[in-house]
């Protein structure tokens, strides 16, 4: 019962903090609520016993990214009147661009899923056992069968007990990331590259006016 | 030419040079040492068995309450 | 519930007492090194000095700057206090004697230290003072850059041990040798970066005591200042936790030398004692450094990290990991396959087309990376499964 309450608090907190990031006028408050989102979701992952990813949330998102955001935002003078005009970013202007990229990524995912399935997945040969929780493997199963959480776990691999003596979370993640899901890792890195180049392009347009 | 440049760099940026030297020494050792070691007559110890040998036959269908 | 509360208090109260008496120890040791007496009036040999300091701080008036952001001004010291104390949850005081013996203990410690930086930034910003803001910016620049070196040294040790658990790191040293001897060059690197991480004297640009009052915490007074002062990232609390971390990584934590001489019952009491003794030795060196060395400039501080410590740590990391691969070959992965694509025979470059070739490399860079990745992934899947 207690765990359910804690989970509910964490989920609701994460959603509320996410809403606050969008609503709040002061950029510092929005960054702080972004940190709260990471904190809640990271601790939710900890409760789901996906400890490594949860702690990686703390280290990477809070420790590095949000602090860089805070650095940048603290330097701005928020009382400066034209600052609010910059903040009022016209979503409609770039909406078609956003939609096109979304469609492309989704489309790419589906195409590659069916073409490269033979190369990338050896889905019958997954030799990964779950250590801590039953929800563990399904998180990585997202691209295979959609977010199919109720699906039963595939224990029918050939040599599943070779990894039994020395499994921990990081090894499981490493094996799955660099073997069966290597392609998706590359796709994710491409997305990250797009996310890095995109803001530069947007800012460039804003300043040349 | 290259040797002189490296020698100059050891005085100007000693830490970078030593770091690079240490860093490249590792993979070089991994590539160079095993052939020499094999030539000298080194036999790698057997790895610790992590599982029992599997029978070379298709899996039997389970019957009853067998897990 | 009650038992776990007692457990937690049994860790927190000694930590707070230790922090309080570390301040006294520092003043006494500094005094004896500078041919002074040090505090000796309150209590026997000045033993009650930290208590009187604390009471004095609590009795002062709490001042909130009128332009400050009240919510963050109050919550920032609380964040720093709780997060720094949370780090003590995983530290083992004896064999299997810790609040939570979690699998990813050392990552947990790093995560807690990275969260507490948020508290420092908030403390600097919420006071609405230029000087505290600049102090917090300098602090975070220093902390983030030196956290890199600390993370790399920890990663090297994790590579050797093969586990993120603090207990297993110590037990590895028990069955082989303490890491101070085989990884000797890493120890001073970690020690120097710990000095910088806790903003101790050769690197205390943030709160250089004669010029800048207390860095990011200039606007704080009385109780909130006492909270920061106790478990601050920059001062004594961080010193003790960093020294314990160095102790666990390099000196073997709670290990008792010649432990076969003692009975198991006696070892239960000796192990925490030896953890404390080794930590105290490191703390004494921290204070010793403060009494001897002058302060460096800010560019020297940043150069030391990025130009000296980081390259050497990266090189040592590569060396140690490849030596491990050499000595203990990985069963599942045949390492020679990884180097196959890079070995070209009879490969010559025409100088005229060299520039075009470079551009071609840039264009095909991603593609080759992609193909290499799929190639490697196939090899790995074949070898593992």
TrEMBL record, chain A:
InterPro entries: NADH_UbQ/plastoQ_OxRdtase_su6, Nuo/plastoQ_OxRdtase_6_NuoJ. The chain crosses the membrane at residues 5-23, 29-48, 55-74, 94-112, 181-207. Keywords: Membrane, Transmembrane, Transmembrane helix, Ubiquinone. GO terms for molecular function: NADH dehydrogenase (ubiquinone) activity. It comes from the Eukaryota. This is NADH-ubiquinone/plastoquinone oxidoreductase.
UniProtKB/TrEMBL annotation, chain B:
Keywords: Membrane, Transmembrane, Transmembrane helix. The chain crosses the membrane at residues 15-36. InterPro entries: Nuo9.5. PANTHER family: OXIDOREDUCTASE 9.5 KDA SUBUNIT, PUTATIVE (AFU_ORTHOLOGUE AFUA_5G08980)-RELATED (PTHR38488). This is NADH-ubiquinone oxidoreductase 9.5 kDa subunit. The lineage of its organism: Eukaryota, Fungi, Fungi incertae sedis, Zoopagomycota, Kickxellomycotina.
UniProtKB/TrEMBL annotation, chain C:
Its main location: membrane. It comes from the Eukaryota. One of its GO terms (molecular function) is NADH dehydrogenase activity. Keywords: Membrane, NAD, Transmembrane, Transmembrane helix. The chain crosses the membrane at residues 6-25, 71-94, 106-125, 145-166, 178-196, 212-231, 238-260, 266-289, 309-330, 357-376. One of its GO terms (biological process) is aerobic respiration. It is found in: Membrane; Mitochondrion inner membrane. One of its GO terms (cellular component) is mitochondrial inner membrane. The keyword Coiled coil does not apply. It is a multi-pass membrane protein. PROSITE patterns: COMPLEX1_ND1_1, COMPLEX1_ND1_2. Belongs to the complex I subunit 1 family. HAMAP family: NDH1_NuoH. This is Respiratory-chain NADH dehydrogenase. The lineage of its organism: Eukaryota, Fungi, Fungi incertae sedis, Zoopagomycota, Kickxellomycotina.
């Amino acid at each position: 019962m207690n765990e359910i309450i804690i989970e509910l608090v964490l989920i609701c907190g994460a959603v509320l903090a996410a809403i606050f990031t969008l609503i709040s006028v002061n950029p510092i408050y929005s960054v702080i609520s972004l940190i709260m989102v990471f904190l809640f979701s990271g601790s939710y992952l900890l409760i789901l016993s996906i400890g490594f990813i949860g702690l990686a949330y703390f280290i990477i998102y809070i420790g590095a990214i949000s602090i860089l955001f805070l650095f940048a935002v603290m330097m701005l003078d928020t009382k400066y009147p034209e600052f609010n005009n910059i903040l009022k970013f016209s979503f409609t202007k770039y909406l078609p661009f956003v939609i096109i990229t979304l469609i492309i990524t989704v489309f790419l995912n589906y195409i590659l899923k069916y073409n490269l399935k033979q190369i990338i997945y050896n889905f019958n040969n997954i030799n990964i056992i779950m250590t801590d929780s039953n929800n563990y493997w399904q998180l990585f199963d997202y691209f295979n069968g959609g977010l199919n959480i109720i699906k039963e776990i595939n224990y029918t691999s050939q040599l599943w007990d070779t990894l039994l003596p020395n499994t921990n979370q990081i090894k499981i993640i490493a094996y799955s990331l660099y073997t069966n899901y290597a392609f998706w890792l590359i796709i994710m890195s491409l997305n990250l590259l797009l996310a890095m180049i995109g803001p530069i392009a947007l800012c460039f347009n804003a300043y040349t006016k | 030419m290259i040797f002189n440049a490296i020698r100059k760099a050891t005085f100007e940026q000693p830490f970078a040079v030593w770091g690079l030297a240490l860093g490249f020494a590792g993979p070089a050792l991994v590539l160079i040492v095993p052939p020499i070691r094999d030539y000298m007559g080194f036999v790698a110890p057997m790895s610790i068995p992590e599982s029992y040998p599997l029978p070379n036959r298709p899996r039997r269908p389970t019957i009853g309450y067998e897990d | 519930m009650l038992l776990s509360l007692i457990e937690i208090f049994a860790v927190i109260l000694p930590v707070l007492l230790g922090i309080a008496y570390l301040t006294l120890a520092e003043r006494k040791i500094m005094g004896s090194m500078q041919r002074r007496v040090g505090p000796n009036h309150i209590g026997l040999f000045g033993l009650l000095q930290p208590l009187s300091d604390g009471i004095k701080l609590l009795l002062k008036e709490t001042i909130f700057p009128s332009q400050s952001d009240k919510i963050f001004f109050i919550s920032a010291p609380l964040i720093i206090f709780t997060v720094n104390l949370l780090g003590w949850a995983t530290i083992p005081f004896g064999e299997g004697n810790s609040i939570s013996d979690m699998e990813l203990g050392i990552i947990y410690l790093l995560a807690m230290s990275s969260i507490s930086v948020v508290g420092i930034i908030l403390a600097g910003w919420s006071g609405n003072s230029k000087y505290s803001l600049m102090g917090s910016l300098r602090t975070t620049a220093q902390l983030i850059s030196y956290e890199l070196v600390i993370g790399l040294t920890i990663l090297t040790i994790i590579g050797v041990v093969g586990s993120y658990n603090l207990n297993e790191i110590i037990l590895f040293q028990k069955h082989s040798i303490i890491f101070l001897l085989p990884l000797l060059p890493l120890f001073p690197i970690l020690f120097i970066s710990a000095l910088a991480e806790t903003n101790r004297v050769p690197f205390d640009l943030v709160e250089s005591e004669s010029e800048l009052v207390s860095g990011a915490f200039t606007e704080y007074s009385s109780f909130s200042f006492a909270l920061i002062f106790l478990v601050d990232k920059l001062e004594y609390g961080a010193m003790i936790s960093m020294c314990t971390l160095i102790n666990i990584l390099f000196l073997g934590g709670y290990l008792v030398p010649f432990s076969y001489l003692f009975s198991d019952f006696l070892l239960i009491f000796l192990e925490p004692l030896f953890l404390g003794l080794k930590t105290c030795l490191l703390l004494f060196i921290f204070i010793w450094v403060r009494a001897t060395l002058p302060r460096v400039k800010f560019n020297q501080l940043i150069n030391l990290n990025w130009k000296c410590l980081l390259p050497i740590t990266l090189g040592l990391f590569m060396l140690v990991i490849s030596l491990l691969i050499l000595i203990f070959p990985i069963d599942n992965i045949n390492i020679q396959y990884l180097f196959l694509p890079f070995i070209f025979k009879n490969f010559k470059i025409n100088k005229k087309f060299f520039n075009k070739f470079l551009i071609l490399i840039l264009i095909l860079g991603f593609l080759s990376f992609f193909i290499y990745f799929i190639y490697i992934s196939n090899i790995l899947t074949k070898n593992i499964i």
